[in-house]
Amino acid sequence: MQKYVCNICGYEYNPAAGDPDGGIAPGTPFESIPDDWVCPACGVGKSDFSPA
Prior knowledge:
It contains no helices and three strands. It has about 50 residues and is mainly β. A three-stranded antiparallel sheet has the order 2-1-3, with no helix packed on it.
Protein backbone atom coordinates (compact mmCIF):
# COMPACT_ATOMS: atom_id res chain seq x y z
CA MET A 1 0.00 0.00 0.00
CA GLN A 2 1.11 3.52 -0.85
CA LYS A 3 2.37 5.80 1.91
CA TYR A 4 1.37 9.47 1.86
CA VAL A 5 3.21 12.45 3.32
CA CYS A 6 1.82 15.75 4.61
CA ASN A 7 3.02 18.62 2.42
CA ILE A 8 2.90 20.99 5.39
CA CYS A 9 4.67 19.21 8.25
CA GLY A 10 6.14 16.03 6.75
CA TYR A 11 3.98 13.55 8.72
CA GLU A 12 3.92 10.22 6.89
CA TYR A 13 0.70 8.23 6.79
CA ASN A 14 1.61 4.54 6.70
CA PRO A 15 -1.42 2.39 5.78
CA ALA A 16 0.08 -0.61 7.60
CA ALA A 17 -0.01 1.36 10.87
CA GLY A 18 -3.11 3.47 10.22
CA ASP A 19 -3.90 6.25 12.69
CA PRO A 20 -5.48 4.49 15.69
CA ASP A 21 -5.66 7.73 17.70
CA GLY A 22 -7.57 9.28 14.79
CA GLY A 23 -9.92 6.34 14.42
CA ILE A 24 -8.18 4.84 11.36
CA ALA A 25 -7.52 1.11 11.69
CA PRO A 26 -4.21 -0.45 10.62
CA GLY A 27 -4.43 -1.67 7.03
CA THR A 28 -6.59 1.25 5.85
CA PRO A 29 -5.47 2.65 2.47
CA PHE A 30 -5.19 6.44 2.32
CA GLU A 31 -7.95 6.56 -0.30
CA SER A 32 -10.35 4.92 2.16
CA ILE A 33 -9.79 7.43 4.97
CA PRO A 34 -12.86 9.67 5.49
CA ASP A 35 -12.60 13.09 3.85
CA ASP A 36 -12.91 14.85 7.21
CA TRP A 37 -9.75 13.18 8.60
CA VAL A 38 -6.95 15.60 9.42
CA CYS A 39 -3.19 15.24 9.82
CA PRO A 40 -2.55 14.17 13.43
CA ALA A 41 0.58 16.32 13.58
CA CYS A 42 -0.60 19.66 12.15
CA GLY A 43 -4.34 19.44 11.48
CA VAL A 44 -4.50 19.98 7.71
CA GLY A 45 -6.87 17.95 5.53
CA LYS A 46 -6.30 15.05 3.15
CA SER A 47 -5.87 17.42 0.18
CA ASP A 48 -2.54 18.54 1.66
CA PHE A 49 -1.04 15.03 1.35
CA SER A 50 0.95 13.61 -1.56
CA PRO A 51 2.15 10.08 -2.35
CA ALA A 52 5.46 9.39 -0.62
